[in-house]
Write a structure and sequence with these properties.
The protein is α+β, with helices and mostly antiparallel strands. It has one domain (2-82). Helices cover 31% and strands 30% of the residues. The strands form three sheets. A three-stranded mixed beta sheet has the order 3-4-5, with no helix packed on it.
Amino acid sequence: MKTFPANIRVRGFTAQDNANRYKLHRQIRKKDVNCKIFAKSRTITIPLGEENINPLLMELVNKYGYKIQVEAFTINNNGINRNN
């Protein structure tokens, strides 16, 4: 990951970083990992009862700064249901 010297808080990805990052996204979709990935906000949501986090998800967290959130609600045709 590239850090800009003028402002160390502003970070961007190189073209190779983006290629590797989206390659991980494809691998996660191919393995049918129970999660949702939001690439723009770098957020991953997992179901409430999930006990094991896939190593591919942890790679996104450790290398590319993604955050994992627990999905407390699901939306269906009848409205919002609370996951218990």
